[in-house]
Structures
1.
Amino acid sequence: MFEWVEKISFNEASPLAVQAQDTQFGFHRKKPAVMPHSHWHGHIEINYLFDCSADYLINGQEITVPEGRMIIFWASFPHQMTASRGDGELVNIYIPLQSFLTWMLPSHFVSQLLHGEVIVSDSLYGCDKELTQIWESDIKRQVPLLASQVINEIRGRIRRMSIEDYSTFELAKRVTKQGETLEDKQVLGGLNHIQTMLRYIADNYDQKITIENVSSSTGLHKNYAMKLFNRVMKVSIKQYINQLRLQHAQALLIDTQSPVLNIALEAGFGSVSRFYDIFQREFAMSPLEFRRKVIG
Protein backbone atom coordinates (compact mmCIF):
# COMPACT_ATOMS: atom_id res chain seq x y z
CA MET A 1 0.00 0.00 0.00
CA PHE A 2 2.80 2.41 0.83
CA GLU A 3 5.33 1.80 -1.96
CA TRP A 4 4.51 4.29 -4.70
CA VAL A 5 5.95 4.31 -8.20
CA GLU A 6 6.65 7.50 -10.12
CA LYS A 7 6.82 6.05 -13.59
CA ILE A 8 5.28 2.88 -14.97
CA SER A 9 7.75 0.60 -16.75
CA PHE A 10 6.38 -1.53 -19.55
CA ASN A 11 6.87 -4.88 -21.13
CA GLU A 12 5.57 -4.87 -24.68
CA ALA A 13 3.25 -7.88 -24.93
CA SER A 14 -0.35 -8.85 -25.48
CA PRO A 15 -3.01 -6.21 -24.69
CA LEU A 16 -4.58 -8.87 -22.50
CA ALA A 17 -1.58 -8.89 -20.18
CA VAL A 18 -1.62 -6.82 -17.00
CA GLN A 19 1.81 -5.23 -16.91
CA ALA A 20 4.09 -3.11 -14.79
CA GLN A 21 3.79 -2.60 -11.03
CA ASP A 22 0.07 -3.26 -11.08
CA THR A 23 -0.26 -3.80 -7.31
CA GLN A 24 1.37 -0.45 -6.43
CA PHE A 25 -0.08 3.04 -6.37
CA GLY A 26 1.68 5.59 -8.53
CA PHE A 27 1.97 9.37 -8.87
CA HIS A 28 3.76 11.35 -11.59
CA ARG A 29 3.71 15.08 -12.42
CA LYS A 30 5.19 16.14 -15.77
CA LYS A 31 4.85 18.26 -18.86
CA PRO A 32 2.49 16.50 -21.28
CA ALA A 33 4.41 14.71 -24.02
CA VAL A 34 3.41 12.78 -27.11
CA MET A 35 3.88 9.05 -26.63
CA PRO A 36 5.60 7.17 -29.48
CA HIS A 37 3.24 4.21 -29.18
CA SER A 38 0.38 2.82 -27.11
CA HIS A 39 0.95 0.96 -23.88
CA TRP A 40 -1.21 -0.75 -21.28
CA HIS A 41 -1.04 -1.79 -17.65
CA GLY A 42 -3.37 -3.03 -14.95
CA HIS A 43 -4.17 0.18 -13.08
CA ILE A 44 -7.13 2.47 -13.00
CA GLU A 45 -5.49 5.67 -14.24
CA ILE A 46 -6.34 9.30 -13.53
CA ASN A 47 -5.03 12.14 -15.70
CA TYR A 48 -5.33 15.74 -14.48
CA LEU A 49 -4.78 18.27 -17.27
CA PHE A 50 -3.85 21.57 -15.62
CA ASP A 51 -3.66 24.50 -18.10
CA CYS A 52 -3.34 22.15 -21.06
CA SER A 53 -5.44 19.96 -23.34
CA ALA A 54 -4.59 16.70 -25.08
CA ASP A 55 -5.56 14.19 -27.73
CA TYR A 56 -5.53 10.49 -26.92
CA LEU A 57 -5.81 7.23 -28.81
CA ILE A 58 -7.56 4.80 -26.48
CA ASN A 59 -8.31 1.27 -27.62
CA GLY A 60 -8.09 2.47 -31.22
CA GLN A 61 -10.47 5.41 -30.70
CA GLU A 62 -9.43 9.07 -30.92
CA ILE A 63 -10.61 11.50 -28.22
CA THR A 64 -9.83 15.11 -27.30
CA VAL A 65 -9.78 16.17 -23.64
CA PRO A 66 -10.27 19.93 -23.11
CA GLU A 67 -8.09 22.02 -20.84
CA GLY A 68 -8.71 21.83 -17.13
CA ARG A 69 -10.30 18.40 -16.95
CA MET A 70 -9.78 15.19 -15.03
CA ILE A 71 -10.22 11.86 -16.76
CA ILE A 72 -10.28 8.32 -15.42
CA PHE A 73 -10.02 5.03 -17.33
CA TRP A 74 -8.91 1.42 -16.99
CA ALA A 75 -5.39 1.37 -18.39
CA SER A 76 -5.53 -2.28 -19.49
CA PHE A 77 -6.95 -0.89 -22.73
CA PRO A 78 -4.12 0.32 -25.02
CA HIS A 79 -3.76 4.10 -24.68
CA GLN A 80 -1.48 6.81 -26.02
CA MET A 81 -1.28 10.62 -25.84
CA THR A 82 -0.96 11.74 -29.46
CA ALA A 83 -0.95 15.55 -29.09
CA SER A 84 -0.99 18.24 -26.41
CA ARG A 85 -1.62 21.97 -26.34
CA GLY A 86 -0.77 24.60 -23.72
CA ASP A 87 2.09 25.17 -21.30
CA GLY A 88 0.53 23.39 -18.35
CA GLU A 89 1.25 20.10 -16.64
CA LEU A 90 -0.15 16.59 -16.53
CA VAL A 91 -0.59 14.64 -13.30
CA ASN A 92 -0.88 10.86 -13.62
CA ILE A 93 -2.24 8.82 -10.72
CA TYR A 94 -2.19 5.02 -10.86
CA ILE A 95 -4.58 3.00 -8.69
CA PRO A 96 -4.25 -0.79 -8.40
CA LEU A 97 -7.43 -2.37 -9.73
CA GLN A 98 -7.83 -4.58 -6.68
CA SER A 99 -7.79 -1.48 -4.44
CA PHE A 100 -10.18 0.45 -6.67
CA LEU A 101 -12.73 -2.37 -6.64
CA THR A 102 -12.92 -2.31 -2.82
CA TRP A 103 -13.84 1.39 -2.73
CA MET A 104 -17.58 0.72 -3.12
CA LEU A 105 -18.13 3.31 -5.84
CA PRO A 106 -21.44 3.43 -7.76
CA SER A 107 -21.84 0.27 -9.82
CA HIS A 108 -22.65 2.07 -13.07
CA PHE A 109 -19.54 4.24 -12.74
CA VAL A 110 -17.30 1.21 -12.19
CA SER A 111 -19.00 -0.82 -14.91
CA GLN A 112 -18.36 1.90 -17.50
CA LEU A 113 -14.65 1.90 -16.67
CA LEU A 114 -14.39 -1.88 -16.86
CA HIS A 115 -16.02 -1.82 -20.29
CA GLY A 116 -13.44 0.59 -21.69
CA GLU A 117 -15.08 3.96 -21.11
CA VAL A 118 -13.14 7.17 -20.43
CA ILE A 119 -14.97 9.28 -17.85
CA VAL A 120 -14.36 13.03 -17.74
CA SER A 121 -15.14 15.44 -14.92
CA ASP A 122 -17.15 18.34 -16.29
CA SER A 123 -14.83 20.75 -14.49
CA LEU A 124 -12.03 20.84 -11.94
CA TYR A 125 -12.20 22.62 -8.60
CA GLY A 126 -9.89 25.50 -7.82
CA CYS A 127 -8.27 23.40 -5.09
CA ASP A 128 -7.51 20.37 -7.29
CA LYS A 129 -4.05 21.50 -8.36
CA GLU A 130 -3.10 22.39 -4.79
CA LEU A 131 -4.48 19.07 -3.59
CA THR A 132 -2.27 17.11 -6.02
CA GLN A 133 0.71 19.12 -4.76
CA ILE A 134 -0.13 18.13 -1.20
CA TRP A 135 -0.42 14.48 -2.26
CA GLU A 136 2.93 14.64 -4.02
CA SER A 137 4.61 16.17 -0.97
CA ASP A 138 3.05 13.62 1.39
CA ILE A 139 4.08 10.67 -0.79
CA LYS A 140 7.70 11.87 -0.88
CA ARG A 141 7.83 11.93 2.91
CA GLN A 142 7.31 8.13 2.97
CA VAL A 143 5.25 8.19 6.16
CA PRO A 144 2.79 5.26 6.12
CA LEU A 145 -0.06 7.14 7.81
CA LEU A 146 0.28 10.05 5.37
CA ALA A 147 0.35 7.63 2.43
CA SER A 148 -2.84 6.06 3.73
CA GLN A 149 -4.40 9.51 4.03
CA VAL A 150 -3.45 10.31 0.42
CA ILE A 151 -5.15 7.11 -0.75
CA ASN A 152 -8.29 7.99 1.22
CA GLU A 153 -8.33 11.48 -0.30
CA ILE A 154 -7.89 10.11 -3.84
CA ARG A 155 -10.75 7.71 -3.16
CA GLY A 156 -12.85 10.62 -1.89
CA ARG A 157 -12.06 12.70 -4.98
CA ILE A 158 -13.12 9.88 -7.28
CA ARG A 159 -16.26 9.29 -5.24
CA ARG A 160 -17.15 12.97 -5.61
CA MET A 161 -16.56 12.68 -9.35
CA SER A 162 -18.79 9.58 -9.52
CA ILE A 163 -21.79 11.29 -7.92
CA GLU A 164 -21.44 14.68 -9.64
CA ASP A 165 -22.00 15.49 -13.29
CA TYR A 166 -19.51 13.86 -15.62
CA SER A 167 -19.24 13.09 -19.32
CA THR A 168 -18.08 10.12 -21.37
CA PHE A 169 -16.87 9.60 -24.92
CA GLU A 170 -19.16 6.56 -25.35
CA LEU A 171 -16.14 4.46 -26.29
CA ALA A 172 -17.78 1.34 -24.91
CA LYS A 173 -20.53 1.73 -27.53
CA ARG A 174 -18.19 2.20 -30.48
CA VAL A 175 -17.96 -1.24 -32.00
CA THR A 176 -16.34 -1.33 -35.43
CA LYS A 177 -17.04 -4.56 -37.27
CA GLN A 178 -15.23 -3.67 -40.46
CA GLY A 179 -11.77 -5.22 -40.57
CA GLU A 180 -12.24 -7.00 -37.25
CA THR A 181 -9.94 -10.03 -37.00
CA LEU A 182 -10.31 -13.26 -35.07
CA GLU A 183 -7.61 -12.03 -32.66
CA ASP A 184 -9.61 -8.81 -32.09
CA LYS A 185 -12.69 -10.88 -31.19
CA GLN A 186 -10.70 -13.10 -28.85
CA VAL A 187 -9.19 -10.07 -27.08
CA LEU A 188 -12.58 -8.40 -26.71
CA GLY A 189 -14.25 -11.61 -25.57
CA GLY A 190 -11.50 -12.29 -23.05
CA LEU A 191 -11.75 -8.81 -21.57
CA ASN A 192 -15.54 -9.07 -21.35
CA HIS A 193 -15.25 -12.28 -19.32
CA ILE A 194 -12.57 -10.76 -17.11
CA GLN A 195 -14.69 -7.67 -16.48
CA THR A 196 -17.62 -9.83 -15.42
CA MET A 197 -15.48 -11.91 -13.06
CA LEU A 198 -13.82 -8.81 -11.58
CA ARG A 199 -17.20 -7.23 -10.92
CA TYR A 200 -18.52 -10.41 -9.29
CA ILE A 201 -15.45 -10.70 -7.07
CA ALA A 202 -15.64 -7.01 -6.11
CA ASP A 203 -19.28 -7.44 -5.07
CA ASN A 204 -18.75 -10.67 -3.12
CA TYR A 205 -15.14 -10.95 -1.89
CA ASP A 206 -16.17 -10.31 1.72
CA GLN A 207 -18.46 -13.37 1.57
CA LYS A 208 -17.64 -17.06 1.20
CA ILE A 209 -17.17 -17.50 -2.55
CA THR A 210 -15.62 -20.25 -4.62
CA ILE A 211 -13.92 -20.41 -7.99
CA GLU A 212 -17.07 -22.14 -9.26
CA ASN A 213 -19.12 -19.10 -8.19
CA VAL A 214 -16.76 -16.77 -10.06
CA SER A 215 -16.68 -18.85 -13.26
CA SER A 216 -20.47 -19.27 -13.21
CA SER A 217 -20.90 -15.49 -13.15
CA THR A 218 -19.64 -15.33 -16.72
CA GLY A 219 -20.87 -18.71 -17.98
CA LEU A 220 -17.42 -20.27 -18.41
CA HIS A 221 -16.20 -23.70 -17.41
CA LYS A 222 -14.23 -23.53 -14.17
CA ASN A 223 -10.94 -24.67 -15.73
CA TYR A 224 -11.16 -22.25 -18.65
CA ALA A 225 -12.11 -19.36 -16.34
CA MET A 226 -9.10 -20.09 -14.12
CA LYS A 227 -6.75 -20.24 -17.10
CA LEU A 228 -8.11 -17.04 -18.67
CA PHE A 229 -8.03 -15.11 -15.39
CA ASN A 230 -4.47 -16.16 -14.66
CA ARG A 231 -3.32 -15.26 -18.19
CA VAL A 232 -4.88 -11.81 -18.05
CA MET A 233 -4.42 -10.78 -14.41
CA LYS A 234 -1.14 -12.63 -13.77
CA VAL A 235 -2.56 -14.02 -10.52
CA SER A 236 -5.00 -16.81 -9.79
CA ILE A 237 -8.64 -16.16 -8.93
CA LYS A 238 -7.94 -17.28 -5.36
CA GLN A 239 -4.94 -14.97 -5.04
CA TYR A 240 -6.93 -12.04 -6.43
CA ILE A 241 -9.77 -12.60 -3.97
CA ASN A 242 -7.23 -12.61 -1.14
CA GLN A 243 -5.68 -9.39 -2.47
CA LEU A 244 -9.04 -7.62 -2.21
CA ARG A 245 -9.59 -9.02 1.26
CA LEU A 246 -6.13 -7.86 2.34
CA GLN A 247 -6.78 -4.34 0.98
CA HIS A 248 -10.04 -4.22 2.95
CA ALA A 249 -8.35 -5.54 6.09
CA GLN A 250 -5.51 -3.00 5.86
CA ALA A 251 -8.01 -0.16 5.68
CA LEU A 252 -9.89 -1.49 8.71
CA LEU A 253 -6.66 -1.91 10.69
CA ILE A 254 -5.76 1.73 10.02
CA ASP A 255 -9.15 3.42 10.20
CA THR A 256 -10.84 1.50 13.04
CA GLN A 257 -10.07 0.05 16.44
CA SER A 258 -11.88 -3.19 15.61
CA PRO A 259 -10.35 -6.38 17.03
CA VAL A 260 -8.42 -8.52 14.56
CA LEU A 261 -11.07 -11.26 14.74
CA ASN A 262 -13.80 -8.86 13.64
CA ILE A 263 -11.61 -7.52 10.83
CA ALA A 264 -10.81 -11.04 9.62
CA LEU A 265 -14.50 -11.89 9.39
CA GLU A 266 -15.59 -8.56 7.90
CA ALA A 267 -12.95 -8.79 5.16
CA GLY A 268 -14.11 -12.29 4.23
CA PHE A 269 -11.31 -14.53 5.54
CA GLY A 270 -13.62 -16.79 7.52
CA SER A 271 -11.24 -17.36 10.42
CA VAL A 272 -8.63 -15.36 12.30
CA SER A 273 -6.00 -18.08 11.81
CA ARG A 274 -6.43 -17.98 8.04
CA PHE A 275 -6.26 -14.18 8.13
CA TYR A 276 -3.02 -14.21 10.16
CA ASP A 277 -1.45 -16.79 7.87
CA ILE A 278 -2.20 -14.92 4.62
CA PHE A 279 -1.38 -11.50 6.08
CA GLN A 280 1.96 -12.69 7.50
CA ARG A 281 2.88 -14.40 4.23
CA GLU A 282 2.05 -11.31 2.16
CA PHE A 283 3.50 -8.54 4.35
CA ALA A 284 6.06 -10.34 6.55
CA MET A 285 4.35 -8.99 9.66
CA SER A 286 1.23 -9.73 11.67
CA PRO A 287 -1.93 -7.58 11.41
CA LEU A 288 -1.21 -6.04 14.82
CA GLU A 289 2.40 -5.30 13.86
CA PHE A 290 1.08 -3.60 10.72
CA ARG A 291 -1.35 -1.49 12.78
CA ARG A 292 1.42 -0.42 15.18
CA LYS A 293 3.78 0.41 12.30
CA VAL A 294 1.25 2.66 10.59
CA ILE A 295 -0.47 4.27 13.55
CA GLY A 296 2.43 4.19 15.97
2.
Amino acid sequence: MDEVKDISLENVSADDERYMRMALREAEKAFDEGEIPIGCVVVKDGVVIGRGHNQVEMLKDSTAHAEILAIGTASAKIENWRLDGATLYVTLEPCPMCAGAILNGRLTRVVYGSPDTRFGGCGTTVDVITGNALKREVRVTGGILADECLGLLKAFFQKMRLEKGDSGNKGVEPSAQL
Protein backbone atom coordinates (compact mmCIF):
# COMPACT_ATOMS: atom_id res chain seq x y z
CA MET A 1 0.00 0.00 0.00
CA ASP A 2 1.47 3.32 -1.05
CA GLU A 3 1.38 5.95 1.67
CA VAL A 4 1.34 9.66 1.02
CA LYS A 5 3.53 11.42 3.55
CA ASP A 6 2.69 14.82 4.98
CA ILE A 7 5.02 17.33 3.41
CA SER A 8 6.37 20.42 5.06
CA LEU A 9 6.13 23.54 2.97
CA GLU A 10 6.53 27.21 3.66
CA ASN A 11 3.68 29.06 5.32
CA VAL A 12 2.28 26.08 7.22
CA SER A 13 0.53 27.40 10.33
CA ALA A 14 0.03 25.66 13.64
CA ASP A 15 -3.72 25.70 12.98
CA ASP A 16 -3.51 23.86 9.64
CA GLU A 17 -3.85 20.43 11.23
CA ARG A 18 -6.76 21.58 13.43
CA TYR A 19 -8.72 22.96 10.49
CA MET A 20 -7.90 19.94 8.33
CA ARG A 21 -9.38 17.74 11.06
CA MET A 22 -12.57 19.81 10.76
CA ALA A 23 -12.52 19.18 7.01
CA LEU A 24 -12.07 15.46 7.72
CA ARG A 25 -15.21 15.55 9.89
CA GLU A 26 -17.07 17.03 6.93
CA ALA A 27 -15.65 14.25 4.73
CA GLU A 28 -16.94 11.66 7.21
CA LYS A 29 -20.44 13.13 6.79
CA ALA A 30 -20.13 12.58 3.04
CA PHE A 31 -18.96 9.00 3.67
CA ASP A 32 -21.99 8.34 5.89
CA GLU A 33 -24.28 9.74 3.16
CA GLY A 34 -22.76 7.50 0.48
CA GLU A 35 -20.95 10.40 -1.19
CA ILE A 36 -17.26 10.44 -2.11
CA PRO A 37 -15.77 11.55 1.22
CA ILE A 38 -14.31 14.96 0.59
CA GLY A 39 -14.79 17.69 3.17
CA CYS A 40 -13.95 21.36 3.32
CA VAL A 41 -13.93 24.33 5.68
CA VAL A 42 -13.27 27.99 4.94
CA VAL A 43 -11.55 30.02 7.65
CA LYS A 44 -11.14 33.77 7.90
CA ASP A 45 -9.49 35.59 10.80
CA GLY A 46 -9.42 32.38 12.83
CA VAL A 47 -13.17 31.73 12.44
CA VAL A 48 -14.76 28.96 10.37
CA ILE A 49 -17.15 30.79 8.05
CA GLY A 50 -18.03 27.97 5.68
CA ARG A 51 -18.33 24.19 5.65
CA GLY A 52 -19.19 21.67 3.03
CA HIS A 53 -18.91 18.07 1.96
CA ASN A 54 -19.60 16.37 -1.34
CA GLN A 55 -23.31 16.18 -2.10
CA VAL A 56 -23.21 15.39 -5.82
CA GLU A 57 -25.42 12.31 -5.57
CA MET A 58 -27.86 13.70 -3.01
CA LEU A 59 -28.40 16.97 -4.87
CA LYS A 60 -28.08 15.37 -8.35
CA ASP A 61 -25.69 18.21 -9.14
CA SER A 62 -22.26 17.64 -10.67
CA THR A 63 -21.06 20.94 -9.19
CA ALA A 64 -21.95 20.06 -5.56
CA HIS A 65 -18.33 19.51 -4.59
CA ALA A 66 -17.24 20.17 -1.01
CA GLU A 67 -15.29 23.28 -2.00
CA ILE A 68 -18.13 24.85 -3.99
CA LEU A 69 -20.58 24.29 -1.13
CA ALA A 70 -18.15 25.60 1.50
CA ILE A 71 -17.39 28.71 -0.58
CA GLY A 72 -21.14 29.27 -0.94
CA THR A 73 -21.81 29.00 2.80
CA ALA A 74 -18.82 31.23 3.57
CA SER A 75 -20.05 33.90 1.17
CA ALA A 76 -23.55 33.73 2.66
CA LYS A 77 -22.17 33.98 6.20
CA ILE A 78 -20.18 37.16 5.53
CA GLU A 79 -22.70 38.42 2.95
CA ASN A 80 -19.98 38.95 0.38
CA TRP A 81 -18.70 36.78 -2.46
CA ARG A 82 -15.23 38.23 -2.05
CA LEU A 83 -13.40 35.96 0.39
CA ASP A 84 -10.15 37.93 0.49
CA GLY A 85 -7.98 36.79 3.38
CA ALA A 86 -9.76 33.43 3.72
CA THR A 87 -8.15 29.98 3.67
CA LEU A 88 -9.85 26.92 2.25
CA TYR A 89 -9.01 23.55 3.86
CA VAL A 90 -10.01 20.50 1.85
CA THR A 91 -9.23 16.81 2.24
CA LEU A 92 -8.41 16.22 -1.46
CA GLU A 93 -6.65 18.57 -3.84
CA PRO A 94 -9.29 20.67 -5.63
CA CYS A 95 -10.28 19.75 -9.17
CA PRO A 96 -9.99 22.38 -11.93
CA MET A 97 -13.63 23.49 -11.45
CA CYS A 98 -13.11 24.07 -7.75
CA ALA A 99 -9.74 25.74 -8.34
CA GLY A 100 -11.55 28.16 -10.66
CA ALA A 101 -14.12 28.88 -7.95
CA ILE A 102 -11.29 29.50 -5.48
CA LEU A 103 -9.85 32.10 -7.86
CA ASN A 104 -13.24 33.69 -8.52
CA GLY A 105 -13.98 33.83 -4.79
CA ARG A 106 -10.65 35.54 -4.18
CA LEU A 107 -9.51 33.16 -1.46
CA THR A 108 -5.95 33.79 -0.34
CA ARG A 109 -4.80 30.29 0.50
CA VAL A 110 -5.65 26.64 -0.18
CA VAL A 111 -4.56 23.82 2.13
CA TYR A 112 -5.29 20.30 0.96
CA GLY A 113 -4.71 16.87 2.41
CA SER A 114 -4.09 14.29 -0.27
CA PRO A 115 -2.94 15.16 -3.80
CA ASP A 116 -5.35 14.11 -6.57
CA THR A 117 -3.31 12.30 -9.21
CA ARG A 118 -6.29 12.09 -11.60
CA PHE A 119 -8.00 15.48 -11.38
CA GLY A 120 -5.83 17.72 -9.18
CA GLY A 121 -6.17 21.35 -10.23
CA CYS A 122 -3.55 22.86 -7.92
CA GLY A 123 -0.43 21.45 -9.53
CA THR A 124 -0.58 17.66 -9.31
CA THR A 125 -2.31 17.10 -12.67
CA VAL A 126 -2.93 20.63 -13.93
CA ASP A 127 -2.30 23.97 -12.28
CA VAL A 128 -5.23 26.36 -12.49
CA ILE A 129 -3.96 28.44 -9.56
CA THR A 130 -0.35 29.38 -10.33
CA GLY A 131 0.09 32.00 -13.02
CA ASN A 132 -3.67 32.28 -13.50
CA ALA A 133 -5.14 34.68 -16.05
CA LEU A 134 -6.94 36.60 -13.28
CA LYS A 135 -3.54 37.48 -11.79
CA ARG A 136 -4.71 36.45 -8.32
CA GLU A 137 -2.11 35.18 -5.90
CA VAL A 138 -3.22 32.09 -3.99
CA ARG A 139 -0.78 30.19 -1.78
CA VAL A 140 -1.17 26.42 -1.94
CA THR A 141 -0.04 23.97 0.73
CA GLY A 142 -0.50 20.25 0.23
CA GLY A 143 0.01 17.12 2.27
CA ILE A 144 -1.59 18.13 5.57
CA LEU A 145 -2.87 14.89 7.20
CA ALA A 146 -2.53 13.30 3.77
CA ASP A 147 -2.54 9.71 5.03
CA GLU A 148 -5.78 10.21 6.95
CA CYS A 149 -7.44 11.97 4.04
CA LEU A 150 -6.38 9.30 1.56
CA GLY A 151 -7.29 6.52 3.99
CA LEU A 152 -10.89 7.73 4.18
CA LEU A 153 -11.14 7.79 0.38
CA LYS A 154 -9.67 4.30 0.10
CA ALA A 155 -12.07 2.97 2.74
CA PHE A 156 -15.01 4.48 0.86
CA PHE A 157 -14.10 2.94 -2.48
CA GLN A 158 -13.37 -0.42 -0.86
CA LYS A 159 -16.82 -0.30 0.77
CA MET A 160 -18.43 0.55 -2.57
CA ARG A 161 -16.64 -2.34 -4.29
CA LEU A 162 -17.70 -4.78 -1.59
CA GLU A 163 -21.32 -3.61 -1.77
CA LYS A 164 -21.24 -4.25 -5.52
CA GLY A 165 -19.64 -7.66 -5.02
CA ASP A 166 -16.32 -6.56 -6.51
CA SER A 167 -13.29 -7.38 -4.39
CA GLY A 168 -11.13 -5.01 -6.38
CA ASN A 169 -8.87 -7.91 -7.39
CA LYS A 170 -9.90 -8.37 -11.00
CA GLY A 171 -8.49 -11.48 -12.64
CA VAL A 172 -7.14 -12.92 -9.39
CA GLU A 173 -8.46 -16.23 -8.11
CA PRO A 174 -10.21 -15.83 -4.73
CA SER A 175 -7.73 -18.21 -3.07
CA ALA A 176 -4.83 -16.09 -4.38
CA GLN A 177 -6.23 -13.04 -2.56
CA LEU A 178 -5.29 -14.48 0.84
